[in-house]
Give the backbone structure.
Amino acid sequence: MSRRRIGVMGGTFDPIHHGHLVAASEVQAQFGLEQVIFVPTGQPWQKSHEAVSPAEDRYLMTVIATASNPRFLVSRVDVDRAGPTYTADTLTDLHAEYPDADLYFITGADALEQILSWHRVEEMFQLAHFIGVTRPGYSLNGAHLPAGAVSLVEIPAMAISSTGCRDRVRAGLPVWYLVPDGIVQYISKRGLYRELTPEWGP
Ligand SMILES: Nc1ncnc2c1ncn2[C@@H]1O[C@H](COP(=O)(O)OP(=O)(O)OP(=O)(O)O)[C@@H](O)[C@H]1O
Ligand SMILES: O=C(O)c1ccc[n+]([C@@H]2O[C@H](COP(=O)([O-])O)[C@@H](O)[C@H]2O)c1
């Protein structure tokens, strides 16, 4: 019997935006993936110099943004694991949950450029096939990676970043149509990206 093909879209998703959603949707279609599992980071160690919103807010935004797509799921494996988030651990946990699946880890061109700096990188390449997608402002290149470890895919260009969305909210500018409608409302309800990061609570 052929193995299942499952996509994994890891990200800090602070907030999730249409660039993430288009990347996952396009790779799902091009690779015939049964599902794409979005995995919000717990502690994104390479962003430790930045203020990151509470994991629970980022997790809930990811659930809201993906709820209407039957091929999208969200996993808590990284949010629930203590310590810095390493993709080698994410993929190990997902293999335990989906033992009959091959995993396809999706990354934008910017993340792919940095991938050799990730933790336990050789082990990571054994655990999944990597798919690098185009992103405006970055060149997509897999020449630095092991032969056969990565596929490069052109996707519709979305010049959107979470940093840009946070800056716009802070400046009082709209983020309508950059993020799903439910995310505009969640950001406002929780007061995210104002000067002070809110404490999690009622
Ligand atoms: N507009 C986009 N097009 C293609 N890929 C993207 C886009 N935005 C993010 N990605 C990819 O999605 C994954 C998760 O990204 P992340 O959550 O860090 O968003 P970001 O917009 O890069 O955030 P920030 O601006 O805070 O660094 C990464 O692999 C990243 O390269
Ligand atoms: O494994 C690592 O060391 C590692 C280092 C940096 C980023 N990652 C993963 O890359 C994905 C995108 O991360 P980020 O920080 O760009 O949101 C997310 O799933 C992270 O866990 C993983």
